[in-house]
Structures are given as structure tokens and as C-alpha cells.
Specification:
Helix content: 40-55%
Shape: globular
Number of strands: 16
Strand content: 15-25%
Number of helices: 14
Order of helices and strands: HHHEEEEEHEEEEHEHHEEEEHHHHHEHEH
Structural class: alpha/beta
Largest sheet: 6 strands, mixed
């Protein structure tokens, strides 16, 4: 990676700085000579930039490594990121719940909390998020001005460049200036990055679970919750943000002129296989008296996916049929995604797949609907649902953007 040939010295210098910092972040502790060899830059260039980063406190020497030469000479001093040098906030806003976390530069969670109070008003969601952020800062003894970046994620179509939620049909939210509204609420002038919540989870995997990706050139992240999304990501060892498209597979039409969807169309995947669709169908079965075990398990509380899965396991016929139909529809959708995009790896997160039989059913349906000339060698990894994975992924996004845009002129 040679950045020395450019017509704009300042731009070349900035690109070199970002490349060096990312190399240290992903491969540290690492020796200066190894960085120079990896990037195709001179050792003096590496040394000068690292000295500057050390002066700013974001990089430090991680101890000395003895030379492997027969006659030991100078000891090599590898360098690494200083985890506590920078901190990042992650926020997920779903309406039914909100989650906030505060991470150090290495992704260690100093604070993580969720609130499950339902709130469909947009302004109220932003206000509640502000309150949660201030609590996180207070608990950790920090001020908002000391935060290096904020990542925000939420369902729907997002304009990442402008930080605007273009549309979340199920809540009637359109053209919401997430970046501007949150910055005003917090009095924060630093970078705020906004992304779809499935895409944010993909950032989290790239930054914190790279071992799971192995050598996958592309991966897809299928996220099933109130909606269904599946961004496709171009995976490289050192770069981030290569999310292809919005990933709104929840609005691919599975049944022409079928069930109405919150987007205004009919027959969408989301109308048949999202958690919201499953709960809606189960609620109908309860009203008709068709799901006695589910009714018994629910008790007096609000119906949840945990109740539905427990009823499926207990043998409630209505709950079992509803879940099986949802998994079948998702299996066909996964086959469509495989046929179209052929990702090397697909990560799947959804409460449905806490049960092994639903995992097996999904993969069986997918294979039966796969195009015959498509090699069925993609890996599938089921991700345990985590109510904080969206907020952590949003913070990971902020860290990735920080690494990509590091400039010290």
C-alpha cells in the first residue's frame, strides 16, 4: 500500500497516517519495520508518524521483543493502541426499546444499558436517548466533550452521508435528522455517524469478531427483529464501511398481493417472517382460542417471542405452525439472497433461531430452493441474540470511522 505518489502532499500524508493507525489497531502489538513492510512505506515515515501518535497518547510501546538474530542486537519495541485514549458512544433506537453503550478504543464496554419502554414518538425517543447517554457519561465520570465519536443505529432506510433517517414506515418516521437532532440535544460538536441497525451489527462483527469471518471475502448479516434486514458487506482485513445497499430484504415481495406490510406494499417478507408478524399472527390465534398452551404460558403479561418459542417447544399446534411458516419463508428468502449475491458467509441473528430445530429447518429450506448451479459451500453462523449488539455495533462503526479518517496535519 504505497501512498507516496500523489499530487496533494497533505492528502498523501493523511492517507499514510490513517493507514499506519489502522495497521497498528488491527495487528498490534507490531514492530515499526513490519508496518513499513506491510504498507510499502519507508521506516522514517513510519517512525515519524508513530512518534506523533505517541505524543498524542493514542499509541504506546508495548514492551521490547528480543531480536531473533544469532547475535542479539537492538531490541525491537512493538507499538500498540492505547485503549483508554479514546472513547465512543453507541446508541440503538428502535421505538420499542433503546440501548446505549460506552466503549474504549479497543471495544471494551465501560457501560451498557437498555430500556424497554415502548415509545413511538420520534422526539421522545431522541430525548430518552439523551437521558441514557448522560447517565452513561455520569457513571463513567466523563463529559460529552471527551467522546471521540458517536454511532447511532435504528431500523429503516438511512442516508449515512447526511445522518438522516429517510423512512421507518412502521412508525411513520420520515426524513428525521438524527445527527442534527442528537447533536443539539447533547450539545456535541464531534462526529455522529448514523446507520441502519443491521449494518451496525455488521460493523461490530468486523471489528470485534474478525475470527468468525475467517477468510470470507463477502458476508451477509441477516437480522430478524421487528423487521428483516440483510446488508451485504465486502470484507477486507484493514478497511471498513463497504456495506453494499440498504439491505432492506424485509420488503422483497414473497407473496404477490399478499398480507399488507407497513411499507404500504403487500406480500413483503417482513409481513410474514418478522417477530412483529409472528406475534401478530399468534395474537390472532389466541383471540380465536386456537393456542391454549401459548395462552397458558403467556399468563397475564404481554405476548413475547419467548412465549411463542416456549409454546412451540411444548407442542402448541398453532404456535408451531406459525413459527414453521415464518422459518420456511425466511429459508426461501435466504436462498434468494444466496442465488443473487453468493456471500461467502451469512450471519443470522434472530430470536427464532434460539431453537436448533428452527435453524435446521431454515437451512433445509434454503438448500431445497438454491439454484442448482450455485455452489452450496457458503458458511452459516447463527449469532446469539443480544439486546446490546446494536448499540455496540454502532459504537464499533464510530471507531471504524475514526480509524478511517484519522488526520493530523
Amino acid at each position: 500500500m504505497q501512498f507516496g505518489q500523489g499530487v496533494n502532499p497533505a492528502r498523501v500524508k493523511a492517507a499514510n497516517q490513517a493507514a499506519i493507525l489502522k495497521t497498528i489497531y488491527h495487528r498490534g502489538p507490531i514492530k515499526r519495520a513490519e508496518i513499513a513492510e506491510s504498507l510499502g512505506l519507508t521506516l522514517p515515515t513510519i517512525t515519524t508518524n508513530i512518534h506523533s501518535m505517541m505524543a498524542r497518547g493514542i499509541v504506546r510501546e508495548a514492551g521490547a521483543l528480543q531480536s531473533s538474530a544469532r547475535f542479539a542486537g537492538r531490541r525491537a519495541h512493538p507499538v500498540d493502541i492505547v485503549p483508554e485514549s479514546r472513547h465512543f458512544l453507541g446508541v440503538e433506537i428502535q421505538g420499542t426499546r433503546r440501548a446505549v453503550c460506552l466503549l474504549d478504543y479497543r471495544g471494551k464496554a465501560l457501560y451498557a444499558q437498555e430500556s424497554q419502554a415502548e415509545e413511538r414518538d420520534y422526539d421522545r425517543n431522541v430525548e430518552l436517548s439523551r437521558v441514557m447517554i448522560h447517565k452513561a457519561l455520569s457513571v463513567c465520570g466523563m463529559e460529552i466533550g471527551g467522546i471521540a465519536g458517536i454511532g447511532v443505529c435504528l431500523p429503516g432506510l438511512v442516508d449515512t452521508q447526511r445522518g438522516v433517517l429517510e423512512a421507518r414506515p412502521s412508525y411513520g418516521w420520515t426524513r428525521k435528522d438524527i445527527r442534527g437532532d442528537l447533536a443539539a440535544q447533547l450539545g456535541y460538536s464531534g462526529p455522529i455517524h448514523v446507520e441502519n441497525n443491521a449494518c451496525a451489527r455488521a460493523y461490530g462483527v468486523q471489528l470485534f469478531r474478525r475470527e468468525a469471518l475467517e477468510d470470507a471475502q463477502t458476508f451477509a448479516y441477516l437480522f430478524i427483529h421487528q423487521g428483516v434486514a440483510c446488508p451485504l458487506v465486502l470484507n477486507t482485513a484493514m478497511d471498513f464501511g463497504s456495506v453494499v445497499g440498504a439491505g432492506e430484504v424485509g420488503h422483497m415481495v414473497m407473496v404477490p398481493n399478499g398480507e399488507p406490510c407497513g411499507c404500504g406494499n403487500r406480500g413483503c417478507l417482513e409481513a410474514y417472517a418478522s417477530d412483529a408478524a409472528i406475534l401478530r399472527r399468534c395474537a390472532g390465534a389466541l383471540e380465536r382460542g386456537e393456542a391454549p398452551l401459548l395462552d397458558q404460558l403467556r399468563g397475564e403479561g404481554a405476548l413475547s417471542m419467548e412465549h411463542v418459542l416456549a409454546a412451540q417447544e411444548a407442542g402448541d399446534p398453532a404456535a408451531a405452525e406459525i413459527v414453521e411458516q415464518a422459518v420456511y419463508t425466511l429459508g426461501v428468502a435466504v436462498a434468494n439472497i444466496r442465488n443473487f449475491a453468493c456471500p461467502s458467509l451469512m450471519l443470522i441473528e434472530g430470536s427464532l433461531f434460539r431453537r436448533p430445530e428452527n435453524r435446521e429447518h431454515l437451512l433445509d429450506v434454503m438448500h431445497r430452493n438454491l439454484c442448482g448451479v450455485i455452489r452450496p459451500d457458503a458458511r452459516f453462523l447463527f449469532v446469539e441474540p443480544d439486546p446490546l449488539s446494536g448499540a455496540k455495533g454502532a459504537a464499533a462503526m464510530a471507531i471504524c470511522k475514526d480509524l478511517e479518517t484519522y488526520i493530523e496535519l
